[in-house]
Write a structure and sequence with these properties.
By secondary structure, this protein is of the alpha+beta class. The chain has a single domain (6-152), classed as SecB-like (Bacterial Protein-export protein SecB, Roll), CATH 3.10.420. Helices cover 24% and strands 34% of the residues. The chain is built from two helices and five strands. It has helices at residues 84-111, 145-152; strands at 6-20, 31-40, 47-57, 66-78, 133-135. Strands 1-4-3-2-5 form a five-stranded mixed β-sheet, covered by helices on one side. The longest helix is centred in the middle third of the chain and has 28 residues, at 84-111. It is elongated, with a radius of gyration of 18 Å. The N and C termini lie far apart (43 Å).
Length: 153
């Protein structure tokens, strides 16, 4: 085993919205959509921001017990040893995979407290992704000053 050339600097959930239905007959959600955006800090070309949105949608004959949308953002740093397009591909594929695992865990945690059995997102692969990397605004890695001040008290 060797260390990954990709390091997760920070990740946070921007949106977690999961709704349950109270209808008598439900089924596990049948349709999952993902949206990935990748941004690179133009001033620090080894830092990337990956945003993953997962939508759990209605589908099937019976209503879904759960529907929702979760968005998680990760800040990644990649090794200088990875160059060119390989860099963008590695960040997009492995960054999305890592963030998807975080979303999967969040969905399990929230739905385990719901009226229906816990829902686990299906396993997916981001291996075939062909990323378009956009310029991203520099991302602050420290908590905002107000949060830091509150922690000090």
């Amino acid at each position: 085993m060797s260390p990954s050339p990709l390091a997760l600097e920070r990740a946070f959930f921007r949106k977690v919205a999961i709704e349950s239905t109270l209808e008598a007959e439900t089924a596990p959600p049948q349709k999952i959509e993902t949206l990935v955006t990748v941004g690179m800090d133009p001033h620090q070309p080894l830092r990337f921001q990956v945003s993953l949105t997962v939508r759990v949608l209605k589908g099937g004959e019976k209503p879904s017990g759960y529907v929702g949308e979760i968005e998680v953002i990760g800040i990644f740093v990649i090794s200088e040893s990875v160059t060119g397009e390989k860099r963008e591909q590695l960040v997009a594929v492995h960054g999305s995979t890592l963030l998807y695992g975080m979303v999967r865990e969040m969905v399990c945690n929230v739905t385990a407290r719901g009226p229906w059995p816990m829902f686990t997102l299906p396993v997916v692969s981001f291996a075939d992704m062909r990323p378009t990397v956009l310029p991203a605004a520099p991302v602050e890695t420290k908590a905002p000053a107000a949060v830091e001040a509150a922690r000090a008290n």
